[in-house]
Amino acid sequence: MLNTALNLNDYTQLSSSDLDRRISEAKAILGSKLLILGHHYIKDEVIKFADFTGDSFRLSQLAAESQARYIIFCGVYFMAETADILTGDEQTVMIPDQQAGCVMADMANIWDVYECWEELQKYYPGEIIPVSYINSSAELKAFCGKNGGLICTSSSADKALSWVFAQGKRVLFFPDEHLGRNTGVKLGIPVKNMAVWDRTIKALVKNSDNPQIILWNGFCPVHLRFSTENIQAVKNKYPDIKIIVHPECSNELVKLADASGSTEYIAKVIDEAPAGSRWAVGTEINMVKRLAEQHRDKFVIPLTASPRPCINMFKIERNNLLWCLENLIEGKIENEVKVSPEIAFDAKIALDRMLSLK
To answer: Domain 226-302 is of which CATH architecture?
Structure first.
């Protein structure tokens, strides 16, 4: 069955039918030793081979619960890092393309965060707790673990911020400014009580002399493409349509939407919506198209007429998935994602604090 020339370039020449056939055969050979995880934003032609589909943290939890020896994470790099942190030493995590990073996560590197942290201590010594969105590097997760902070997902950000406020502390939230702002507003924090750390000039831009939340000015390019004009246009065309968006969108957009939430929340809302209902969805296009296909009894469209996929999720292809699989069969591990024990230890502390929230 196998082509023993395991050069990735050779796999780019395979036909669609050959890719499908050989991936299916490889999965059958590896059996229970293998677990393939697929994020909601991965394209259909790849996601159909996933054993589980979901958001990044849920998939990492499934990896940790699994007895599989090999875990291939069809997502972006920070997701595979989180899976490696949570899985056992006997498990190996891989990613089909190690260049599949995250633009938002890359907007906050550990050295810039340390510089920000040291500067903020001059203004608010001992008063700040760091909270990192899960869309961040393992090093940033470890930074939170070492400094009394924690991780959050888009669905648990409100609990994380509430945990900090209950201690009478301020929040440094990174890397996504918009999720932080939307969560603060949801908790009743006025925008005027939030400040922004501008990573480009490495300085605090104050809206208030007494900010409760300090936002790192990172963002998701996919979600910032959506605009209030998009909402108006789709409402003009379909007056009865409901708008649901991801909280990585701007606060102006979230305020105009009918609902906002994580990818899991968006999927749940549309799944439970009545037949015949209409939905315009503000998130990555592969997920929106999949929701439309899965719910043909409903009208589901992207919020913008010119949606674009996540460029990094798009790097996960059948050819690099097959390359990983057939190398495994040959006893070779390619594109392993391995977090150092020291970083993993501190990152796990921050993740465990998130899991302890009620």
So the answer is: 3-Layer(aba) Sandwich (3.40)
